[in-house]
TrEMBL record:
CC cofactor: heme b
Native source species: Apiospora hydei
Gene3D superfamilies: Chloroperoxidase-like (1.10.489.10)
Protein name, entry field: Cloroperoxidase
Similarity comment: Belongs to the chloroperoxidase family.
Domain Heme haloperoxidase family profile as annotated: residue spans: 4-219
Length: 246
């Protein structure tokens, strides 16, 4: 069961949750089993289709990536807490979670982190450029404050997808816009914004939609940086976190 304390969600030891607000929302609504444990492929793919109309190939891509975090050979099921593994899907510079260097609770929403993110959304409708600015702001803060900051070849695409997904799933795919209140509701409540009038997409969302939106986020980020990349702070990599590495 989950209980609200001062407007925040907390969970009992019987529930498993992830760094992903969307997956947590699916469990909170019952599209996934509320406990968030022992989730097989058909369950996850069906939940993503029913809740946000993601097509099965794209959902399967996400499931296989998530399955790689399970510390068992040949696993066919996962629990949401497995996704807390650092630098697999979970990554530094999250929009709503602290970096792993500062906390081991990436499954818990952090209002102060999200306050920094939402400061880049001044309008009722978030544009791709504002979404990219919010993500870039978190990357810059993390890079400046976290001595172990890293966006590796798994974390960097996941970071971009984190932004692209909320536009694709909750906004206008063609315009590249999304109502700010929908996104805030998702992150802060870990529930789908039905209460605000949101409805799932009437057409199936595919990998093409996600890749196109990710490309727009990267392009806007490059524009905001004026071609000056932010460098990874790890000692073994000096790849600029821009372009293909963003």
């Amino acid at each position: 069961m989950c209980f609200g304390i001062q407007g925040r969600l907390t969970y009992t030891s019987e529930t498993a949750r992830s760094p992903c607000p969307l997956l947590n929302a699916l469990a909170n609504h019952g599209y996934l089993p509320h406990g968030g444990r022992d989730l097989d492929r058909d369950t996850v793919l069906g939940a993503l289709e029913d809740a946000v109309n993601l097509d099965r190939p794209l959902s399967d891509f996400f499931f296989q990536a998530a399955l790689s975090t399970v510390p068992l050979p040949n696993a066919t099921e996962l629990s949401l807490h497995h996704l807390n593994q650092h630098n697999a899907i979970e990554h530094d510079a999250s929009l709503s979670r602290p970096d792993a260097f500062f906390s081991s609770h990436q499954d818990v929403f952090d209002p102060s982190i999200f306050a920094e993110t939402r400061a880049h959304w001044p309008d009722p409708v978030i544009s791709v450029r504002q979404a990219a600015a919010a993500r870039l702001g978190r990357v810059q803060t993390s890079n400046r404050t976290n001595p172990a900051f890293e966006l590796n070849r798994a974390g960097a695409p996941a970071s971009v997808a984190e932004t692209a997904v909320y536009i694709v799933a909750f906004g206008d795919v063609e315009a590249g816009t999304v109502r700010r209140e929908y996104v805030e509701y998702l992150f802060e409540n870990e529930r789908l914004p039905f209460d605000l009038g949101w409805q799932k997409s009437k057409f199936v969302l595919t990998q093409k939609h996600l890749e196109a939106m990710s490309g727009r986020v990267v392009a806007e980020t490059d524009s905001l940086l004026n071609g000056v990349g932010i460098r990874d702070a790890t000692t073994d990599s000096q790849s600029p976190i821009a372009g293909d590495e963003l």
